[in-house]
Specification:
141 residues; alpha/beta; Collagenase (Catalytic Domain); four-stranded mixed beta sheet; 52% helix
């Protein structure tokens, strides 16, 4: 099950049902099933505090993924900075909604076992993000 929460932010309107269905399809295509995933939308300040407290990083980020997965059943909390998503969208000249999809599928791909620490891992991750975003966009139209 995928659930959504907001901590003092507003998220652009989108179909939560379609979004959940899409993320579930991502997991299935990656050979996983969804246990419990919570997408928590928050501010830069909130995510920076979490980054400092839990990861000992002192910088802004768009997502922090807490992975509680067991075997191929993926579960976790995905904390997403709406401020960072909007900034990234502006910098990359894409819509806020598209960037939000990219960040959320990025978190699900982490739960499926993909990393992004090396150049090769980042290349694979970006390729997967693009592949699944194209599938979502084609379903919307």
């Amino acid at each position: 099950m995928i659930s959504f929460e907001c901590i003092n932010v507003e998220v652009p309107e989108f179909s939560l049902e379609l979004f959940s269905f899409w993320l579930n399809e991502v997991a299935v295509e990656e050979g996983c099933s969804i246990g419990e995933i919570t997408l928590i939308f928050c501010s830069d300040a909130h995510l920076l505090e979490m980054n400092q407290q839990y990861l000992k990083h002192d910088y802004y980020t768009d997502i922090i993924t807490f992975d509680y997965s067991e075997h191929t059943e993926i579960s976790g909390d995905l904390f997403v900075s709406i401020d960072r998503v909007y900034e990234n969208a502006f910098e990359n000249t894409v819509t806020r909604e598209l960037e939000l999809k990219r960040v959320c599928v990025h978190g699900v791909l982490h739960l499926c076992g993909y990393g992004d620490k090396s150049e090769e891992e980042s290349r694979i991750m970006r390729s997967k993000e693009n592949y699944y975003i194209d599938k979502y966009v084609s379903r919307e139209t």
